[in-house]
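seq/struct pair 1
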Amino acid sequence: MSDRTSLVNELWLEWRIATRFLVDNYLQTLLIAIGIAVGSAVIVFITALIDGLQINIIDRTLGTQAHIRLLPPDEFNHIAAPPSGTVQLVLESKRAQGLQSISNWQEILSILSTQQDIDAVSPLISGPALARRGAARSSVALMGVNPVQYQRIIPIQKDMIAGKFIVGGGNAVIGKELAKDFGVQVGDKIRLDAGEGREATLNISGIFSLGVRELDSRYVYLDIKQTQTLLDLPGGITVIDIRVKSLFSADQIAERLGRLTNLKAESWMQTNGQLLNALRSQSMSTQMIRVFVGISVAFGIASVLAVSVVQRTREIGILRAMGSPRRQILHIFLLQGGILGLLGSVLGGLVGFLLVQSFNTFGPKLFYIPVNASLLASTVIVATVTGVVAAAFPARRAARYDPAVAIRYV
C-alpha cells in the first residue's frame, strides 16, 4: 500500500511541475496550443469532408445497382477436338450471348441467404423490349422483380416522384424520362412488346427518378411472372442481385460466390473501376494531409520543449540536486508534450466540429458531412501521442543534465 501511495505522490509531483512549467511561460504555451488546435481542426474538417463526399458519391452510384451480380456463364462454341496427330486451324467468332436463365436459382438463393457476409439477396429477370404509346416508340429494359426483396437491394421507394412502387396485377413502374417522352402519368396505360407476338398492356402505378438519365428513360419495373411471360423464360431469372455488409470487400466475396455457385460474379468494384480509383485517390490525399499536419505539429512541440529545456536549466539542476531521479525529469517533459497535444487537439476537434456544422448549415448543401465520434477521439489520441513522442528528445536532453553544471548555468 505504501508503494502505491508513493507512486501516486510521485506522479502528482511530476504533474504539478509539468503544469507549472507550462503556466509560467503561458504565452509560449498558448501559441503552441493554438498551432496544434489549427492542425487538429484541419485534420477533422478535411477528413470529415472527404468522408462525406465519398459517402455521397457511393450512395449516388451504388444507390442504383447491386454490390454483386450473379449471372449465367457466357455461352461458347463447342469445337470438336481434331484427330490425334493432326493440326486444326480454326477461325472462330465468339458466340452471340442470348438471354439465359439461371438454373436452380431457388436453391442458389437458399445457399446465399446462409452466407454471413451477405446482407440481402434478390432475384431479377431482365431483358429488352419495345415500349409503345400511340406513335411514340422507345427501347426499354424490362426489370422483373420481387418488390420486397428488391427494395432491400435498391431502396427505390424513396426515389418515387409519383404514385407507388407497385408491380404485379397488370401494373408497371417507369422512369421519369420515359414518362416525359411518352407524355404519361400515373393511371395511364403503356404497351410493351418483347417480340414474337409477346405483348402486354399495363397500367402505370408509379414514376421514379434515380437521377441517372439512362436508367430513368429505360427501366420498366414489372413483377417476375409478367416479365417471364414477356421474355419467354417461364420459371427462370437472369440475374441474382446481392448486397454485402462490407462494401469494399465485394471483390473477394464475388470471387468466392462465383466458385460456390458456378455463376459469373461481377462486383461493383469491377464495373466501377474509375470510381474506385477516385475513392482511393481521395483517401490517399486525406492520409497525406494528416501525416504532414501531424509532422508539423510534432516539430512545433519539439521545438517549444527544446527551448523550454534551455530556459529551465537551473530549475532542472535544482531538482536533480534535491534528489529527483533522471526518469522523473524525463517524465516531466513527456507530460508537457502530452498536455500540449491533449489541450490543442481538444480545442482543435471542437473547432473542426463547428466548421463542419457551419458547412452543413450555411454551405451549398450539396451533400451532408457526418462527424463520427471516432474521428474526434482518434484525433485527440494521435495528437496526444504525437506530443509525447515529440517531447522525447528534449526530455532525454533534460534528464542527462549534470546537477552541478546545470545550477551554475546562467
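seq/struct pair 2
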Amino acid sequence: MQYLGGKSRISKQISEVINEIPRWKVKNSKTDSTDNDEHMFRESNLTFVSLFCGSCSVESKLTGFTKKILNDKHEYLIELLNGVKDGYELPENISVEDYKYIREHKNEDKVLSGFVGFGCSFGGKWFGGYAKNKTGTNYAAQSKRSLLKDMATLMDAEFTCKDYHDVELPKDCVVYADPPYNGTTGYGKEKFDSEEFWNYMRTISKEHIVFISEQNAPGDFVAIWSKPFTRTLDVNKDNQFKVTEKLFVHKDNLKYINRD
C-alpha cells in the first residue's frame, strides 16, 4: 500500500537482517555460559515489537517470531489494519468525488478513511491529494492488493495505537523503530522530537535488541546496513533527491548481530 516514508522498496533487505536474530537464538539455545549477555534472547518464545509499523512492509516479511506487536500512533491506520484483520472488504475503485467526501467525513468509516487517506493519496501522504498519473493507474486496486499481501502474514499480530514510549516491551524482545525523519513533523502539526527518541532508544537497548531505520544517528549508534535510493516529493516528479537509508543498532547491541 502507498505510504509516505514506507520501506516497501527496501523491506526485504531490512527484514533479512532482523530475521537473523531468531535464527541466532535457536542456534545458540543449548550453549552453556555464565555470561548474562550470552543468556539473553534464549527463551523458547521471542516477541517482535514495531514502534512505528506504518503499512507493515518490513513487518510482514519477518519470520521466526512467536508473537508480533505492531504499533502506530495514527488512529486511522491502526483502524485500517485491524479492519483488514477482521475481514473488512476494501474497495477497488475510489473516484475523486469519493476521495473528497471521505476526506471531509473521516469518522464515518475509519477503516475506509485509513485506506483512502494513505492508499489513494499521492505518495502515500495522509490525504495529500488524490493519486493519479498519465497511465491511469488504479491506486485503490493496487493498494488493496499490496496491503492484503502484506496482511496475509500478519493475521495473528496484535495492532496497537499508542505513543512509542507507551508500548509495553516484553522481556528480551526484538524492537524495530522506523520514526519520522529528523526535522519533519509526525502525523499532526507537532514536530517529532528526535533527541528524545534517541535517548529512549539508548534506554531500551539495555534490555532488548533494537533496530532503527534512519538516515543518520548519534555517534553511539552503528549502521549495520545501508541502501541508497531516490525519493520523489511531487506529482510531476520534478522534485527528486537521493537518500541513503540505514539500519542502526546501539553499539552495545553489536554482539548480537551476525553471530556465527
